[in-house]
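Course exercise 7: structure representation. Students receive a sequence record and must write out the corresponding structure in token form. The form below is the worked example handed out in class, using Winged helix-turn-helix domain-containing protein (395 residues). Read each field label carefully; the graders check that inputs and outputs are placed in the correct fields and that the protein name is recorded exactly as given.

STUDENT ID: A-19
EXERCISE PROTEIN: Winged helix-turn-helix domain-containing protein
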Amino acid sequence: MALNWSREEARLYQLAAVGLHGKRYPEGEDGIREAFRDLRAVQLDPLPILGRNHDLVLQSRVGGTHPGMFLDLLHHKRLGFEYWDKMLCAIPIAEFPYFRALMEAGGEQWEKRREAQLDHDHPGAKGAVLEAVQKRGPLSTVELKELSVAQGAYRGWKTTQAAGAALEVLWNRGLLSVSHRTNYRRYFDLTERVVPPTILAYPTPRGEEFLRYLLRKRVDMVGLLPTGGAAETWMSLQQARTDGLPQRMVDEGELARVEVAGVRTPFYARPDAELVLRAAEEIPLDGQVRMIAPLDPLLWCRDALAKVWGFSYAWEVYKKPDQRTYGYYVLPMLQGDRFVGRFDGRYDTTAQTLHVLGYWMEPDGLPLRHAAIRDGLEQFLEYLGGVRIAWPRRR
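STUDENT ANSWER:
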């Protein structure tokens, strides 16, 4: 039997499920630890315009954070590891054993094709790179070039050298893990030297046990997972959906099915979704305006976002300027259970200035001059470590 909710109820539940309502995290490092544990994964992205995406995800939930804090904790204190979870994510270290099943399988088809191409074109590359890391410790493509290891030409995704492709393949297979990053460049080491032995000792769930875990995790991460829609949302779970696993989990009480008034596609939610919603209703929504990361879990399911929230969002960084509707690095602005605006910004680290390049008020949203918008941007400035906001000439 499905739960039947209004759109308002669905929005409130989703806010609670993704950590944007109902829980007040401690500031700084302790808050990052708690929020990361609750989020179960944070998508990584290299663009550092207003901090990086992972920094932005945390700042909307945790006070006293700054760009760079999260990755320092992730790697230097082994808070988590990097791997695919729909997209490239930071994942809590305790979940590493579950992902070995994906690693051993070689990942999605495109990853297997890339490995096959490397093996065909450069059959000794993987072994040479693995041996170099084994002997010398964490290495990046820079050190491998200096050592003249696997420097044959490679035509493929993100790299032109066999060494880079070999690092990716060995990481994808779980033989190497990201040890740390320097200027966002990844350094790879043997997995047994990165992941704590107590974690490595746990057994690896496989088959349906693993798929059940991954589906529960995906639902936890987004709050409301559409039963249909984009294949990307169901990455690594397409076959499970085809085989009827989600409905079996609903029948067995491991997931809840939610129907939202006015929305044709139903959703999957955690089994205690009704209790979570009713608890969230007891907590008043605050008036704080939050800047939401472009790859925040709240925005992952774009079709559902449009239908449940009435908010259409496309990240336009990879579009040509004349093809953009808004701007280059535009962040949605959330107040309570509604999006009130979006702004395009750039942070000048030398001048410690946040430049508001553009602002667009949502229907029934808030104008740029509104006190809540200004307060939200002032708090955002604190996260950036800045001292000044440069407002548009016309506000």
